[in-house]
Amino acid sequence: MNSDFKTYLNLNANLSEQQYSETIKGLQIKNIKKGEFLLRSGEICMYIFFVNKGLLRSYTIDKSGKEHIIQFASEGWMITDRSSSFFNESSDLYIDAIEDSEVYFLDESFLQKLSCLSPEFIKNNTQALHNHIRNLQDRVNMLLGATAEERYLKFIKMYPNILARIPQWMVASYLGITPESLSRVRKQLTKKS
Amino acid sequence: MNSDFKTYLNLNANLSEQQYSETIKGLQIKNIKKGEFLLRSGEICMYIFFVNKGLLRSYTIDKSGKEHIIQFASEGWMITDRSSSFFNESSDLYIDAIEDSEVYFLDESFLQKLSCLSPEFIKNNTQALHNHIRNLQDRVNMLLGATAEERYLKFIKMYPNILARIPQWMVASYLGITPESLSRVRKQLTKKS
DNA sequence: CGAGCGCTTGATTGAGTTCAAAAATCGTGG
DNA sequence: CCACGATTTTTGAACTCAATCAAGCGCTCG
User: Fold this and answer.
1) B122-134 burial by CB neighbour count: b if 16+ within 10 A, else e?
2) CA-to-CA distance for A50 and A52, rounded, in angstroms?
3) Of A86, A100, B53, B155, which is least packed with CB atoms within 10 Å of its CB?
4) What are the Cα distances from residue B99, in Å, to A7, A95, B53, B57, B58?
5) CA nearest A140 in B: which residue?
C-alpha cells in the first residue's frame, strides 16, 4: 500500500494540477517520536491526523487510571476526535505515537479548502464518517455480545498487520480485557489447535 | 417538544413555501403497531425512520439468541442502520416498535431532493452523523471502562424520558447486563440513598 | 550487565451470569 | 371493574469468566 498523503489526495479528491499544488501549499508534515502526544484529554482536537508513516493510537483513561485503546491508525489511515473537533468540546482522548511516525496535520481550513474544490472529496469524507460509524457499531456489538476469545479472534482477523506491530497489552486494552486474561485466552487457543 | 416531522424540516432545512410542499409530496407516514418490524437482520435498510410519535428500538441478536439493544428512538428522533443503507449491505439489526407509533419513511430519493434544495439540511445531516459517532464512542468507552452501576446511572441521567416508557429488561439489554443484574444494581442503589 | 518492561503462570477474589422460583405488575376479556 | 393469565421484576444459590494480586522468566536497550 502506498501510504503517501499525496497519493491519497489523488485517489480521493480528483484535483487539477494547479488546484493540487495550491491545496498542498502550507500543508505540514511533522515527525512524531514514539511516545509523543498529538492530543491530550482536556484539550480541543484541532486536526485530523493523517498517518504517512508509523503508527498512532487513541485512548481514554478511566477514573481508576486504566487505559482503554479506542483506535489504532497505521499508514494511510486518519485519526482524530471528531466529537471534540466538530462540536468544539474538550476531548476525552489521548492520541500518541506507538512508533516514530510521519503525520500530516489536517486543519479545518485545509479541509474547507479541499471541500470547496472537490465534491468528490466531500463524498469520500461522508463515506469515511459512515465507515467510522460502522466500525463503532460493530465494536459496541462485540462488547455487548462476544466473549474475550471471540473478540480476540476477530481482532487478529481484522488487523493482522497492526497486531504484529504492537505489544500484547495494547491488544488487551483494545479488547477491553487485562493483559493476563489475553495471555490465558491465547494459551487456550494454542491448546485447541 | 414538538415532534412533528414538518416542524423538524422547518427547523433544519429552511425551505421556501413552494419547495416545502414539493418536498413533502409523496412523503408517507405510517402507523406501526407495537411489536411490528421495520427492519430485520439480513435485509438491506432502505429508509431512515423518523419517529413522529411513539417509540422504536434497534437491536441485534447474538449467536446464543440474546438480544442487545443498540438504540432507542422516541418522538423527534431518527433511527436506521447507516452501515446497511450507505454501503448497501445486509443489516445485522432489527428495528421494531416498542409502542404504537407514527413513522415517516425517508428514502434515498427524498434525502437527495432535500440535499439539493437545502445546504442547511446537508449541514444538519453531517451534524447528525457526528452526533451519532459521539454517542457510539461514548458507549464503547462505557462498555470498556465502567461498571454496571455506573452505566445504569449514566443511562437514567441521559434518557430519563425513555426510561419511563420501557420495561426494565430493555434497559438491561441496552446496558449489556442481565435483567437480574440490573434488578440487583437498583436494589444496591436504593440502599445507598 | 543490570534495570525495567512485557509476558506468563498460579492462587484468589469478585462482578455478573445462570437457573429456578416466588412476588409484583400489567393487560385484557368477561 | 374485577379476575385471571401473562409478563416483568425480584430474590436466592451456585457457578463462571475475567480481574486482581503476586511472583518469576526472558528480553532488550541504555
Assistant:
1) bebbeeebbebbb
2) 6
3) A100
4) 51, 43, 9, 10, 13
5) B140
Instruction: Return the ∠ at Cα A37 (arms to A33 and A42), rounded to 5°.
Output: 175
Question: Would you state the cell numbers that stand for residue A141, as one nine-digit string?
Answer: 456489538
Residue corresponding to grid cell 423538524:
B8
Give the C-alpha separation, B88 to B108, whole Å.
12
- Tell me, yes or no, if B17 comes closer than 8 A to chain A by beta carbon: no
The alpha carbon dihedral of A92, A95, A96, A97 has a sign of positive
Give chain B's largest Cα–Cα span. 60
Shortest alpha-carbon distance between residue A190 and chain B (Å): 24
Which nucleotide's C1' sits nearest to the alpha carbon of A146?
D17
Torsion sign, CA atoms A17, A20, A26, A30: negative
Q: What is the pLDDT of residues A35-83, one digit of tens each?
A: 999 999 999 999 999 999 999 999 999 988 999 999 999 999 999 999 9
Q: Which of A136, A139, A150, A171 to mutate to test the interface with B (most CBs of B within 10 A)?
A: A136
pTM: 0.93
Which grid coordinates belong to B185?
Answer: 444494581
For chain A, how many residues are written? 193
What domains lie within chain B, and their CATH numbers? 5-117 (2.60.120.10)
Cell numbers linked to A153: 479472534
Q: Which of B135, B16, B10 is nearest to B76 (CA)?
A: B10
Q: Rounded to a whole number, what is the distance in Å from the CA of B8 to chain A's nearest CA?
A: 21
The alpha carbon of A61 is separated from its chain's Cα centroid by a whole number of angstroms, namely 17
Q: Rounded to 5 degrees, what angle do the CA atoms A16, A22, A23 make?
A: 90
Phi-psi group of B118: left, alpha or beta (phi > 0 → left; psi -120 to 50 → alpha; rest → beta):
beta
pLDDT tens, residue order, chain B (193 aa): 446 888 888 888 888 888 888 888 878 899 999 999 999 999 999 999 999 999 999 999 998 899 999 999 999 999 999 999 999 999 999 999 999 999 999 999 999 999 999 999 999 999 999 999 999 999 999 999 999 999 999 999 999 999 999 999 999 999 999 999 999 999 999 987 7
How do strand A55-61 and strand A67-74 relate by DSSP bridges?
antiparallel
